[in-house]
Amino acid sequence: MLRGLTTVSFFADDVTAAARWYTELLGIEPYFTRPAKGTPAYVEFRIGDHQHELGIIDSRFACRPRSEEAGGAVTYWHVDDVETAFERLLSLGATAYEEPVERGPGFVTASVVDPFGNVLGVMYNQHYLEVVGR
């Protein structure tokens, strides 16, 4: 039934600021922007080995009011070095949600809350590298 990740959607009250922050983090500009009354309502990045989509949506379009606390599902993005990625995220203004943790041989996770209230997970995953290597 589930065939693959299509889009991870984050919300932000200031999409322009969020787009700048993620441009700095990712080193690329969004490839798609949809304005609403002059300001971006949605921006989208294609990232990683499979060009997965990371979309940032204006909070006013959220289907439910956003909680003041970060939480919910955590999507982990593969990185080659969790500690380095975690420290870079913190240096860009994210706050620690979960410090790096080894989950077992070949699996390390960490997560942060971005400056816009979204949980962003990073993970070193040996199985991911095996799949990409095929």
Description:
The chain is an alpha/beta fold and 134 residues long. The chain folds into 2 domains: 1-61, 2-Layer Sandwich (Signal recognition particle alu RNA binding heterodimer, srp9/1); 73-134, 2,3-Dihydroxybiphenyl 1,2-Dioxygenase, domain 1. It is 22% helix and 40% strand. The chain contains 3 helices and 8 strands. It has helices at 15-26, 82-91, 126-133; strands at residues 7-12, 32-36, 39-47, 52-58, 76-78, 95-104, 107-113, 119-125. The protein has a 4-stranded mixed beta sheet with strand order 1-4-3-2, with helices on one face. It has a 4-stranded mixed beta sheet with strand order 5-8-7-6. The chain is globular and about 50 Å long. The model has no long low-confidence stretch (mean pLDDT 91).
